[in-house]
Amino acid sequence: MTCLSMASEEQLALSSLIKSVHQQLRNSSIESSDPEQVWREHLQNHELLNQYAKAMQKLATRYWDKNMQITSKKANCRIDWVVNSCREYFMLGSNSLLYLFRDKEDQIMKIINESHDYKHSAYLISNIKLLDVGSCYNPFSAFPEFEVTAIDIAPAQETVELCDFLEVSLVDVKPVSSRPIEHLVRSYYDAVVFSLLLEYLPASEQRLKCCLKAYDVLKPEGILLIITPDSRHQGANAKLMKNWRFTLGLMGFTRIKLEKLEHVTCMVFRKAIFREVPERWCRIHKEGYMEPVLCIPQDYNNSSLSVSNVTDNIEQHRDNDETKIKDMFRGLPFVDDEIG
Q1: pLDDT per residue as tens digits for the range 195-245
Q2: Cis geometry, peptide bond prior to residue 139 (ω within 30 degrees of 0)
């Protein structure tokens, strides 16, 4: 048996373990109707948590990252995508996307309220304070521009802190460092990363809770970067992604980037300075199937409900102000064409 076939067998076994854990969590949540209790019981299964953490670390370091280098597909590397997205948004001085989107927010607020006149302060940053949730092995520590807080329910190495993001309490002042982490600080982080995290959580309610907590720990104008598995063709899960945009918009996020890589969909959401901007976007673009939930394709595997057969019921009413605001959004870089 060749090394390649042995490696392929190992990769398949690791992937099967990850998928089986996710599937069991979803099934148990449906059967019990209490996802919170299912999650609490999962956290007590330390042997399974450690198996899962080791499997994720091996998949990432032995296969995903290595395959990208061998096949010259680093453009599809999720780690590089996060790093480059943060650099473009924060690290280009007055040309940073942060300031472009700030200007666009002001223009839209002027349409909403003609008397809008907000005096901004410079967004001061040396190193990007990055919270990597579900980090596993802390890949972003290799990049000098980041000041990383890496957390996981089952750390795969010592630089990752033990912490359940769903349950950790929030405080207003940075506490003395502790292990495990008992508190996180509100409005402290420049960036929060959910890389292959939300699909681990068995129910929409927990994914919503996770994103709301990210909103709370981000500074105004900070960004939430979400990477979710997606091996289907571009646009196959468009309705789900549009509903994610709608749901996070209601929280106060503006989606500023969506990119389909080889096996994942990647998104950047900006914590808006003015909640009126994403909330108004939601009112303008709400379609009949949209509701404030965060579903993933796997949620539909055992259901008669299919994402593809959800009926569109696009609201027809558009007044002049709404048309102007849509045009503003269309002019933003990296915004896809689904706003039309």
Answers
A1: 999 999 999 999 999 999 999 999 999 999 999 988 776 677 889 999 999
A2: no
Q: What angle do CA 250, 254, 259 make, to 5 degrees?
A: 120
How far apart are the C-alpha atoms of 182 and 2, rounded to whole Å?
47
Q: What is the pLDDT of residues 12-45, one digit of tens each?
A: 888 899 989 999 999 999 888 888 999 999 999 9
CA angle (240, 246, 250) in 5-degree steps: 145
In 3-state terms, what secondary structure has residue 134? Answer: coil
What DSSP element (H or E) covers 52? helix 46-58
* Rounded Cα distance, 98 and 249, in Å: 18
- Torsion angles phi and psi, residue 186, rounded to 5: -65, 145
Query: CA-CA distances (angstroms) from residue 70 to 2, 98, 174, 229?
Result: 18, 34, 42, 21
- Give the Cβ contact number of residue 110 at 10 Å: 15
